[in-house]
C-alpha cells in the first residue's frame, strides 16, 4: 500500500477572509486507521471533501487510491434500498452479494434490501451506507461522523466492524468509539495540525503534555517580560531624572561634566533603544507563543436563562401511549416529572422518541391512550433533533425566536464558535456549528422546563463537558433524550425510562 501525500495544501471558502488550511503538508499511509479529531468548525469535513476533490485548492494531493465518503448523498430516499445501494456502489444485480456480505457483518438482514430506504431506522441506514462503502478493495474510506445516529449497541457493532478494516479516516466526537477503531490520530486545532501515532488516549496524553509545556513556557516568558519591563521603566525613569538634574544644574549656572545633557541623553537613548529592541523581540516571541496557546481551549462556564417554575408538577403522564404509522408506539408511560428533576428517555434509534416529544408538545392527534398534563403556564425550551433545515443568518434566527442577538452571539462564543462564522449563512455552517446555534438559542431563551432531543449530537468533546457542567450547576428541570451514556448518567436525577420496555 502506498501513501496519500498532501503538500502545501491551502484552502478557504469564498466567504472567508483567512485560510482554513494554510500550506499544510501530511503523509498518510494507506493502511492506517486514522482518527480525525478537532473542535466543531475546524475543518474536518472540509479536509475530507478536499481529498475527494470536491473543492478547488492550492497545493497538491497525490494518491493511488480512490476515495469514498460516508454519508453518501441519497438522491431518492423513498426508492428501494437495493436500488439505492446499486446507485452508490455502482454494483450490478448479480454483484449485490458483496454488499450483503458486509451487511451481514454489521448485523443487518437481507430483508432490508426490499424495503424503501426511508423506512429504515437511522441506525440501519448508517450501517447500510457503511456496508456500501466497504464493498471493493483499492478504495480509501472517508467516514464522517458515523456515530451520530447510533445508539450504544449500534456504536459497538460499527466499532467491531471497523476493527476488521484497514485504510480509512474516521471522524467522531465519541472517544470510546475512537479508542477502539483507530491507530493514528490527526488533530486539527486552532493553531496547528498534528499527526500522532496511537489511539485517542495516546493523543490526549501527548496533547496534555504539550499544553502543560506551553503553559510553563508562557509563565516563564511572562516573568521575563515583567523583568524586562521593570528594567525598561527604570531606565526611562533614570533618563528622565538625569534630564531634570541637567536642566536644573544649568539653570543654577553650575559646571556639570557628569550630568552633561548631551552625554546622558545619548547614553540613555542607547540603553533605551537596546532594551526596547529586547522588549520588542520578547513581545514578538510572546505573540508567537500566544498563537500556540490559543490552541489550548479555555473552557468558559455557560449560563442558562432558567427560571425555576412555580408549579411542583411539571409533566404528568398516566398510561400514556402514542400512535405511529397507525400502530401504538410505546408501552404505557406513567411519569410525574417535578420541578428540579431531570428525566432521561431511552430507546433504540428509530424507535420514535421524537414522536413522543411531539405528542407532549401539543400534537394531540398522536395520543392514542392515557392522560397527559403539562402545566400551561410552564415555559418550555424545545431543542429539536432535526436542525438541518436552518436557513438565513444569525440575525434572522435570533429574530425568529425573539431572542436578543448579542446574547445569542455571546453564548455562541462561549460554546467555542468562531467570531468569523457569525456572518455566515446558517446553511454553510459545519454540523456542530449548526447544533450550537440551536443550543445557544435554548440556553438564552427564558424557560422553566427544557425538552432536549439529542442535544449532544455533533458537538465536540469540550462543548459536551461545558453543557454537563452547566446542568449540574443550575439544576434545571429537564426531559432529555441522548445516547451519550456518561452525560446521561451525570445529569439524570431519576432512573432512565426505557420506552422500548414495559415500564410497569
Ligand atoms: N459550504 C461552505 N461554505 C462556506 N463555509 C463553509 C462551508 N462548509 C463549511 N464552512 C465553514 O468552514 C469551517 C470548517 O467547516 P467543516 O464543516 O469542515 O468543520 P468540521 O471540523 O467538520 O466541524 P464539525 O465538527 O462541526 O462537523 C467552518 O467554519 C464552517 O463554517
Ligand atoms: Mg464535520
From TrEMBL:
PROSITE patterns: ABC_TRANSPORTER_1 (PS00211)
Superkingdom as given in the UniProt entry: Bacteria
Listed InterPro entries: AAA+_ATPase, ABC_transporter-like_ATP-bd, ABC_transporter-like_CS, ABCF_ATPase, P-loop_NTPase
Short name of any one Pfam family annotated for the protein: ABC_tran
Keywords in alphabetical order: ATP-binding, Nucleotide-binding
Gene3D superfamilies in the cross-refs: P-loop containing nucleotide triphosphate hydrolases (3.40.50.300)
Annotated ranges, domain AAA+ ATPase: 30-201, 339-492
Keyword hit for Nucleotide-binding: yes
NCBIfam families found in the cross-reference section: ribo_prot_ABC_F (NF000355)
UniProt-recorded name of the protein: Ribosomal protection-like ABC-F family protein
Native organism: Lentilactobacillus raoultii
Encoding gene, per UniProt annotation: abc-f
Amino acid at each position: 500500500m502506498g501513501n496519500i501525500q498532501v503538500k502545501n495544501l491551502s484552502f478557504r471558502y469564498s466567504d472567508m477572509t483567512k485560510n482554513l488550511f494554510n500550506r499544510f503538508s501530511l503523509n498518510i499511509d494507506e493502511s492506517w486507521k486514522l482518527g480525525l479529531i478537532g473542535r466543531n468548525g475546524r475543518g474536518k469535513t472540509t479536509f475530507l471533501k478536499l481529498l475527494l476533490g470536491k473543492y478547488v485548492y492550492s497545493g497538491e494531493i497525490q494518491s493511488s487510491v480512490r476515495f469514498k465518503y460516508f454519508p453518501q448523498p441519497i438522491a431518492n430516499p423513498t426508492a428501494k434500498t437495493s436500488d439505492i445501494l446499486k446507485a452508490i456502489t455502482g454494483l450490478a444485480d448479480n454483484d449485490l452479494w458483496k454488499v450483503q456480505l458486509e451487511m451481514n457483518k454489521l448485523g443487518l438482514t437481507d430483508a432490508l434490501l426490499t424495503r424503501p430506504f426511508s423506512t429504515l431506522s437511522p441506525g440501519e441506514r448508517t450501517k447500510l451506507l457503511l456496508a456500501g462503502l466497504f464493498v471493493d478493495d483499492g478504495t480509501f474510506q472517508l467516514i464522517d461522523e458515523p456515530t451520530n445516529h447510533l445508539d450504544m449497541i449500534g456504536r459497538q457493532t460499527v466499532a467491531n466492524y471497523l476493527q476488521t478494516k484497514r485504510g480509512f479516516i474516521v471522524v467522531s466526537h465519541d472517544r470510546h468509539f475512537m479508542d477502539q477503531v483507530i491507530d493514528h490520530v490527526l488533530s486539527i486545532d486552532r493553531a496547528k495540525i498534528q499527526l500522532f501515532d496511537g489511539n485517542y488516549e495516546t493523543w490526549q496524553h501527548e496533547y496534555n503534555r504539550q499544553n502543560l509545556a506551553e503553559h510553563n513556557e508562557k509563565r516563564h516568558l511572562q516573568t521575563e517580560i515583567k523583568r524586562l519591563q521593570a528594567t525598561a521603566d527604570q531606565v526611562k525613569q533614570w533618563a528622565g531624572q538625569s534630564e531634570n538634574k541637567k536642566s536644573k544644574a544649568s539653570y543654577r549656572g553650575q559646571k556639570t561634566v557628569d550630568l552633561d545633557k548631551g552625554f546622558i541623553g545619548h547614553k540613555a537613548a542607547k540603553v533605551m533603544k537596546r532594551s526596547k529592541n529586547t522588549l520588542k523581540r520578547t513581545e514578538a516571541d510572546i505573540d508567537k507563543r500566544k498563537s500556540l496557546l490559543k490552541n489550548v481551549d479555555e473552557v468558559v462556564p455557560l449560563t442558562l436563562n432558567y427560571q425555576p417554575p412555580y408549579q411542583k408538577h411539571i409533566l404528568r403522564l398516566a398510561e400514556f401511549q402514542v400512535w405511529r404509522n397507525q400502530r401504538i408506539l410505546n408501552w404505557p408511560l406513567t411519569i410525574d416529572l417535578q420541578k428540579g428533576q431531570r428525566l432521561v428517555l431511552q430507546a433504540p434509534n428509530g424507535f420514535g422518541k421524537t414522536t413522543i416529544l411531539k405528542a407532549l408538545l401539543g400534537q394531540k392527534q398522536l395520543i392514542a391512550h392515557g392522560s397527559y398534563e403539562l402545566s400551561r403556564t410552564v415555559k418550555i425550551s424545545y431543542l429539536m433533533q432535526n436542525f438541518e433545515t436552518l436557513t438565513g443568518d444569525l440575525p434572522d434566527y435570533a429574530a425568529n425566536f425573539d431572542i436578543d442577538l448579542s446574547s445569542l452571539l455571546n453564548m455562541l462564543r462561549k460554546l467555542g464558535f468562531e467570531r468569523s462564522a457569525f456572518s455566515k449563512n446558517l446553511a454553510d455552517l459545519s454540523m456542530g456549528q449548526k447544533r450550537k446555534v440551536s443550543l445557544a438559542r435554548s440556553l438564552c431563551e427564558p424557560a422553566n422546563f427544557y425538552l432536549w432531543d439529542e442535544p449532544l449530537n455533533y458537538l465536540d468533546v469540550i462543548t459536551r463537558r461545558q453543557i454537563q457542567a452547566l446542568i449540574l450547576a443550575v439544576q434545571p428541570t429537564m426531559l432529555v433524550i441522548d445516547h451519550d451514556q456518561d452525560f446521561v448518567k451525570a445529569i439524570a436525577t431519576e432512573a432512565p425510562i426505557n420506552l422500548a420496555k414495559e415500564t410497569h
